[in-house]
Write a sequence for this structure.
């Protein structure tokens, strides 16, 4: 595809929220300005950012400089839009963190009884509306929440607060 063709890039950082940006001309996108804009957009204080996108074969490709950015923008003949994940850190740091996560993944990250819990469907609510078998809350107990810390009302009184 021509370097002068328009492109839409969808940036994703930490979650489902994303921002789409449109450029009339691919060749005007500069790595330094792009990274500075992403830092400002997402409130990232770290100096080093790495972008990750999937190539035409479905492989993750890391973008860390202007050369990589040009390659990403010119990778496909038909790509008019790209989905890019924003990662904080250098390639070395990201790979090191990935190895640590792999070592930690040997322990289960879900609760022990997660597979045994049944998630209610709308039909369950409708069928049990007049059911004598018990309430929905009895049949589908909520997960335990952490205990609430009780606050002494005397602490909140401005007359007794030593900070005031």
């Amino acid at each position: 595809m021509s370097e002068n063709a328009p492109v839409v890039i969808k940036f994703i950082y930490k979650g489902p929220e994303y921002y789409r940006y449109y450029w009339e001309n691919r060749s005007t996108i500069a790595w330094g300005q792009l990274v500075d804009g992403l830092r400002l957009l997402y409130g990232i204080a770290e100096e080093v950012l790495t972008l990750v996108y999937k190539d035409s074969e479905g492989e993750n490709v890391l973008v860390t400089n202007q050369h990589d950015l040009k390659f990403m923008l010119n990778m496909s003949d038909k790509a008019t839009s790209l989905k890019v994940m924003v990662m904080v850190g250098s390639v070395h740091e990201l790979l090191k963190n990935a190895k640590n996560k792999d070592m930690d993944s040997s322990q289960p990250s879900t609760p022990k009884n997660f597979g045994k819990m049944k998630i209610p469907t709308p039909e369950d609510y409708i069928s049990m509306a007049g059911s004598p078998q018990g309430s929905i809350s009895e049949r589908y107990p909520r997960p335990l929440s952490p205990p609430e810390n009780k606050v002494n009302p005397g602490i909140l009184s401005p007359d007794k607060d030593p900070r005031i």
Summary: The chain is about 30% helix and 20% strand. The longest strand covers residues 81-88. The chain has a mean pLDDT of 74.
